[in-house]
Write a structure and sequence with these properties.
The protein is an alpha/beta fold. It contains 16 helices and ten strands. The chain has an eight-stranded mixed β-sheet, with helices on both faces. The protein has a two-stranded antiparallel ribbon with strand order 7-8. Helix 14 links the parallel strand 9 and strand 10. The longest helix has 20 residues. The protein is globular and about 60 Å long.
Length: about 450
C-alpha cells in the first residue's frame, strides 16, 4: 500500500498537462487512427522491440547508426563482440573514404551514456555531430553500445524478454562491456593505444573498468570525460518543476521516484527501462509524424515523451535544437535495465561511489563478503584525464564533478563549458556544442592522438 500511495502522490501534478495534450490530439480526428493502432499493438502484445522503421504514412522514421553514418558520406562497419558473461554487443565504426590508410590512423572510441546508443554521436549534420567531426579530423572513430540498448540486446542463452537478462547495471558495463569492446578495437586496428571519450554513464563505467583492470590504464592515451559521473550526492532534482511541494525539494527526490519506478517495473515483470518499441517510444516515432505540421509539438501526445526526457536530464532552451528534436527522439531513449537506474539512485542516497547494493546486509555479504557494497577508488584511474562539465547539468552536478576531479591522480584539466545554461543533453545535441565543446576537445585530442 505504501508503494501504491507513493506512486499516486506524483500523479495529480502530471494529469492536467497530460490531459491537455491528449485533448488537443482528440480534437484532430485524422490523428486518432494512428494513435489507436499504436496502442492496440501494445495491448494485444504484437509490438516488437526495435523493429519500427516507417510511420503509418509510409515515411521512414528510424535509421540505424550505420545508415546515419553512410547518409553523411562516410563508410560504416558493424562489429559484434562477445563479453565473458555472454552478452553480444555491437560496435560501430566510422570510416572516412577521403582519407587513406584507415588501419594506421589513431583511434578514438566514443561511449554513450544512460538510455543512449551509438546513434547519439552521429545525429545531425556532418559539420556538427562529434563523431563526424572526429572522422573528418583524421581519426578512426569507433562507437560503443552498452548491454541492453537497441544494438546490444542479445545474449548467447539469456532471453531479453526474461528477468535474468536484465540483472545488470554499470558495474557489469565497466567490468565486462568496455574491456571487451576496447580489446576488440585494438586487436582489429593493430593500434595498442587509443583516446577514450565517455559521456555520463560512459565515464562511470570507465572508472569501474580501471578499478577492475588497472593495467588497462596503459591502453589509454587520453580519457575525455564529458558530464562525468561517479558519486552523485549533490545531483540537482528537477522534480520541483512538475510537482509543487511545500518547502524546499530534497536533493535526490527524482531518483527516489526512479527507484520507486524500478520497484514497480520489477513487480510487474518489466525489468527493461524505456526501450525502443515501448508504447512511449512508438508514440514518439509514429504519432509525432502525424502531428507535425498540424498540431504544435508542445500540445501533442509526443510532448509527453519529450517532457520525461528533459525532466530527467534538464532543459536548456537556448541550446535546444528543436529542428533536430524529432530525429533525436527516433533514437533516444534506446533502453537499459531498470537496475541501472536503481544503481544511480543508490549513489544519490549514499553519496558513495560503490558497487550495486544488493538490498540487505545478508545479500551483500553473500555477493561481496561485506555487509555494504565495496567502494570504487578513482585513485586507480592513472591515465591522463580531461573533464568537461556544464554549470546547469542536473545529473553531473558541478560540486560532484569537482569532488570527482580531486580524486583523479592524473587530471590534466577540468573545463567548464563556457555557456551558463549548458546541461547534460547539450553535450550531445547543443546547437553550438561544436564551437563550445567539440572543436576545443579535438584540438586537445590532437596533442595525444598524433595525427
Amino acid at each position: 500500500t505504501d508503494l501504491l500511495s507513493n506512486s499516486l502522490d506524483i500523479l495529480p501534478s502530471l494529469i492536467p498537462g497530460v490531459m491537455q495534450q491528449v485533448r488537443t490530439v482528440i480534437n484532430q480526428p485524422e490523428i486518432l487512427p494512428s494513435l489507436a493502432r499504436t496502442i492496440t499493438k501494445h495491448v494485444m502484445g504484437s509490438a516488437r522491440k526495435g523493429d519500427s522503421r516507417v510511420s503509418s504514412a509510409g515515411k521512414e522514421i528510424f535509421k540505424p547508426t550505420p545508415v546515419l553514418i553512410e547518409d553523411a558520406g562516410f563508410h560504416a562497419e558493424s562489429h559484434h563482440v562477445l563479453t565473458p558473461d555472454g552478452y553480444i554487443l555491437t560496435v560501430h565504426r566510422i570510416i572516412n573514404p577521403d582519407l587513406p590508410h584507415v588501419q594506421s590512423r589513431p583511434v578514438v572510441f566514443l561511449q554513450h551514456g544512460i538510455l543512449c546508443s551509438s546513434s547519439d554521436w552521429v545525429i545531425g549534420h556532418r559539420s556538427k555531430a562529434f563523431g563526424f567531426l572526429l572522422a573528418d579530423a583524421g581519426y578512426d572513430v569507433w562507437l560503443g553500445n552498452f548491454r541492453g540498448n537497441i544494438y546490444s540486446r542479445n545474449h548467447t542463452h539469456l532471453d531479453p524478454d526474461k528477468e535474468d537478462f536484465w540483472q545488470f547495471s554499470w558495474d557489469e558495463m565497466g567490468q565486462f562491456d568496455l574491456p571487451t569492446m576496447l580489446f576488440h578495437v585494438t586487436r582489429y586496428t593493430g593500434q595498442n593505444k587509443l583516446v577514450y571519450v565517455g559521456h555520463s554513464m560512459g565515464t562511470t563505467a570507465f572508472w569501474v573498468m580501471m578499478n577492475r583492470y588497472p593495467e588497462m590504464n596503459s591502453m589509454i592515451q587520453l580519457m575525455v570525460g564529458m558530464a562525468p559521473v561517479a558519486a552523485a550526492a549533490h545531483m540537482y532534482s528537477p522534480i520541483k518543476y512538475i510537482a509543487p511541494v511545500a518547502g524546499p525539494v530534497e536533493v535526490g527526490m527524482l531518483w527516489q521516484y526512479l527507484h520507486l519506478l524500478q520497484r514497480v517495473l520489477s513487480m510487474t515483470g518489466q525489468y527493461e527501462f524505456w526501450p525502443r518499441g515501448s508504447l512511449f517510444a512508438d508514440i514518439s516515432e509514429t504519432l509525432c509524424q502525424e502531428v507535425d505540421g498540424r498540431v504544435r509539438r508542445n500540445e501533442s501526445v509526443c510532448a509527453i515523451t519529450e517532457n520525461i526526457i528533459f525532466l530527467i536530464a534538464g532543459f536548456d532552451a537556448p541550446q535546444m535544437n528543436f529542428t533536430l528534436l524529432p530525429e533525436i527522439l527516433r533514437h533516444t531513449p534506446a533502453g537499459t535495465s531498470a537496475r541501472t537506474l536503481q544503481h544511480f539512485a543508490q549513489g544519490v542516497n549514499s553519496g558513495r561511489f560503490t558497487m550495486f547494493d544488493q538490498g540487505s546486509e545478508k545479500a551483500n555479504l553473500q555477493k561481496y563478503g561485506s555487509p555494504v557494497p565495496p567502494e570504487y577508488s578513482l585513485s586507480r584511474v592513472t591515465c591522463p584525464v580531461v573533464l568537461y562539465w556544464g554549470l546547469n547539468d542536473w545529473l553531473a552536478h558541478p560540486t560532484d564533478v569537482a569532488e570527482l576531479a580531486d580524486g583523479l591522480p592524473r587530471l590534466l584539466a577540468s573545463y567548464q563549458v563556457p555557456f551558463p545554461t549548458f546541461n547534460h543533453l547539450d553535450f550531445l545535441w547543443g546547437k553550438t556544442a561544436d564551437l563550445l565543446l567539440y572543436h576545443p576537445a579535438i584540438k586537445l585530442i590532437n596533442q595525444f592522438g598524433k595525427i
